[in-house]
UniProtKB/TrEMBL annotation:
Highest taxon in the source lineage: Bacteria
Cofactor names: Fe(2+)
Signal sequence segment: none
Transmembrane segments: none
Keywords assigned by UniProt, alphabetized: Aromatic hydrocarbons catabolism, Dioxygenase, Iron, Metal-binding, Oxidoreductase
One Pfam family recorded for the sequence: Glyoxalase
Protein name, per record: VOC family protein
Family to which the UniProt record says this protein belongs: Belongs to the extradiol ring-cleavage dioxygenase family.
Start and end residues of each VOC domain: 9-141
SUPFAM superfamilies to which the protein is assigned, alphabetical: Glyoxalase/Bleomycin resistance protein/Dihydroxybiphenyl dioxygenase (SSF54593)
Amino acid sequence: MSVPFKTDRIHHVAYRCKDAKETVEWYARVLGFTYTTAFAEDHVPSTGEYDPYMHIFLDCGGGNVLAFFELPNQPEMGRDEKTPAWVQHLAFKVADFDTLKAAKAHIESLGIDVIGPTFHGIFRSIYFFDPNGHRLELACDIGTEEQYAELKRVAPLMLDDWSKTKTAPRHAEWLHKEPIEASE
């Protein structure tokens, strides 16, 4: 199937927040994101409905933008209780494992609980939550070209097997078997 256009990148990703100011300050202090833009309206431009909001935009680096909506007239925000808390998350890339360890130390020094570093075969990552309850991940790539090529090769096979059985295919079970020398 051919698509008559090509996207360049994600323009922005938007989530809901409890407090726009607190969210801006938290992301600046914890992750160093830069607050760049805000839109505030009483009516939603796409639907015309009355629903006052503050829409904030944060520069994450590399042309990536994370946005949030504060919606004071809506019921208190929650999360999808039918989906485990570890599933829905935002992952941001860092340069290397040393940077990941420094990030963990910084985030923990702010009193935030951090899980990891976790070994994922081709990357390592840490996990924590923002003040809105969104799970965040920082990850650094550690894979080899051969590993990435093998994952690309088995991806269609894995999807086909999963689709038929709904059990985990074993084509890439090596991903979460941490080598002894990598556990430092």
